[in-house]
Design brief:
By secondary structure, this protein is of the alpha/beta class. It is 25% helix and 21% strand. The relative contact order is 0.15.
């Protein structure tokens, strides 16, 4: 069990976006929820990652198979953080969140200034259990520019302003040992999630 500084604890956490932007699931999952086969209340639900501005990503409804990316030994999705932006989520989705669901917001923390701006926007939302800093999406143009130093700087600044507990979502390719040591010394990162492992 993981217990965050705000007293919230969880045993099971969904992967970002597994149950859409609100924990209720995608439309094709609703029948499972209606029939009790899928029970979002059992999980801490990490919403689909939001960016500061709307992002088209790679998802095209006419070619759903185009978002499957081959890796050695398997496949991974390459949707590329398709979303309508954080302003849309705060205006349209946040007011409709089920108060019985435990929700963690996931934000793409690529540019430091945008990450900090998004945290400021999320700070007033008391229903959130925390914020996941998605530092590791492999399907974004700047993924190769995310050095260990850059990730540490984003997390240090984020932890100075966030009123919510923070989770760092890193890649298996990152220097996770150095990141963990720095997080323990100089940030309020309370948990680490790992993105797509081959």
């Amino acid at each position: 069990m993981i217990t965050l500084s705000n007293g919230h604890s969880f045993e099971f956490m969904t992967a970002s976006g597994a149950l859409a932007f609100d924990g209720r699931g995608w439309p094709w999952e609703w029948p499972l929820r209606w029939t009790g086969q899928l029970q979002p209340k059992l999980f801490t639900n990490v919403i689909k990652t939001l960016s500061r501005h709307p992002r088209k990503g790679n998802l095209k409804w006419s070619h759903p198979w185009s978002v499957v990316k081959n890796l050695s030994g398997g496949v991974v999705n390459s949707i590329g953080l398709t979303n309508n932006g954080i302003d849309w989520w705060i205006e349209k989705i946040a007011p409709t969140l089920n108060p019985d669901y435990k929700i963690i917001a996931s934000i793409e923390a690529d540019l430091e200034a945008e990450a900090l701006e998004m945290i400021h926007l999320l700070n007033p939302l008391n229903q959130l259990q925390g914020i996941e800093l998605n530092l590791s999406c492999p399907n974004t143009p700047t993924t190769d520019q995310r050095s260990t130093e850059k990730l540490i700087a984003v997390c240090q600044k984020a932890s100075q302003i966030s009123k919510q507990p923070l989770i760092a979502k890193i890649s298996y390719t990152h220097d996770y040992k150095t990141l963990v040591q720095e997080f323990e010394k100089s940030t309020k990162i309370e948990a680490i999630a790992i993105n797509s492992v081959p």
